[in-house]
Amino acid sequence: MAHIDYYLSTLSPFAYLAGTRLEEIAARHGATITYKPLDIMALFARTGGTPPAERHPSRQAWRAQDLPRQARKLGLPLNPQPAHWPTNPAPSSYAIIAAQGAGGGDVGGLVHSILRACWAEERDIAEDNVVRDCLAAAGFDPGLADSGLLSGAETYAANLEEAVAAGVFGSPFYVTDGGQVFWGQDRLEDLDLQLSGKL
Length: 199
Known about the structure:
about 50% helix; Glutaredoxin
C-alpha cells in the first residue's frame, strides 16, 4: 500500500487551494496519508526560503495575481489578504496532530476546514473557539484543542526536522514512500500519475 507524508502549514494559501484533492487521490490508489503540520517560517529559514513579506516586490505582485486566479480555476472562495493572517499557526497545528492521533474523524476534512477558516471565512485559526469548531465539524472531540499540547508541540518540532531531512522546503509538500517529492497544489496531478505508475 502506498503512503504519502503530507507536510503543510496551516497558514499556507496554496495548501488551502489543494482542497481535498490529496484525499481523493489517496482513496483512488488505496494510499495512506500522514499529516505533518510544521512551522513554515522556521522551514524557510532552514532551507533558503523567504517569508512572503520579505520577498522581492515582483514576487509579491505575482503571488497577489496568482492566488485569485488559482482560486477561480478551482472554484474556491478566497480572500488573498485575510483579516487574521499571519497568525499563530501552533494551536491549529496541534489540533491536527491530536486529531490524527485520536482517530475517529476526518483529518483531511479538518485540515481543509482550518485552512478555509483562514483564507475564506475571515476567522482567526489561533483562537480556541475556531479550532474547536473545525474539530467538531470534522467529527472530532472539540476537547482535543486542549489536550495533548505537550505532545503536539513535540511532534510539531519533530515534523520540521523530518521535513528538512526529507528535502521539503515549502507548503503543501507531498513525499511518497518511494522518495518522490511534489511541491505545491499544482503538482497533485503529477502525484496522481506517479501513484498510477505513469510517471
